[in-house]
Model the fold of this input.
Amino acid sequence: MINYLSCAVLLLGLAVKLPDLVRDWRDPFLRTICTVMALAGLCFLLGAPPTVTAINDLSGVPNLAAPLTYATITAYSASSLVLVVYWRGGPHVRRTARRWVLSYALVLAGIAAMFAMGEASVERRTDFDTYYATTPFIAAMIVLYLVAHLTAVTVTAVRSLSWARDVEGWLRGGLVILGVGTVVSAGYSISKLTAVIARWGGQDWSALSTSLSPVFAGLGAVLTVIGILVPLAGQALTLWRRDWRSFVRLEPLERELDDLLTQQNLRLRRPLWSSPSVLLTWRQTSINNGLHRLDGLLDHQLYQTTHATALQGSGDPTQAEATAWAAVIAAAAQSQRTGQIPSKTGRMTGRVPEPDVLEDIAEALVTSSLVMRERPSRAVEGVA
Done:
């Protein structure tokens, strides 16, 4: 049951990434991520005893499930290695990836050839490795896939853990987990190789292969996939928090323009159950609509005066600019509400604040005493 549950979790993660793959299927990194998750899930599926029985019975070939499982494990370990190659990048990343893919394609071909040439007529559902450890060709197939697996996970562990020392944040955490996962995965091939070598010496250590190695394989695969997903999920969480923070910070500026947006129907319908990114875009659009409608009511003289005063008080040009914009926006919104349109002299026609200043403007609306002087009625409403 644990095999099928693990397979379902991995396939669910694959389903989450598939829309990204459809949108950008040319991205080799994205293709490799999906391949790793698909092969990891397939390893769990093929390794389950009921699946082994079903494959052997339906195919009519005793032990056909063994080379299929071995090939999948080999392909999974190779794809994890290729993923780290693409992940880190570099001047020869494609050439390096192609070499690894070609090398492991030859390993897969060798697994198929050895099984075809060997004799494995007695079905062994759990102890195939140790039972056939001395059988010509079949023994070579077993050693081939185990050495290939051990090589791939070792190289992956070394590369990911050494790279982790040079980076920080989510990427570092993901690489450490990935490296630990591949180290654990190495226990799978080491325990099986130990059992096979013991069989060559006439000893029966099959418990290493049947009981211990599946634990290493399952835990290693889960840690490896988690390590891959941590930086992706972390980046998404960082963007989510950034967009939500910006959405919240812009609220005072939208509230200042609320009467104008409502009366002139400048605000789009608020999206329901949407991501912070969508909500942020909605609020930014509403604010921009309101600011453009105030074009011609922004007092240039007020801007200059407020800017000079704020700059003298704080010494921060960015804060002074935001405070000046907040003052003229508050004054223009007040004029719009009361219908007291100022004279055309000194208007800032055709000028609106840059998008990257809007959050600072929103903050100045509720924190700057220079702005409060231009919006006394709104200040009273805020207190109420």
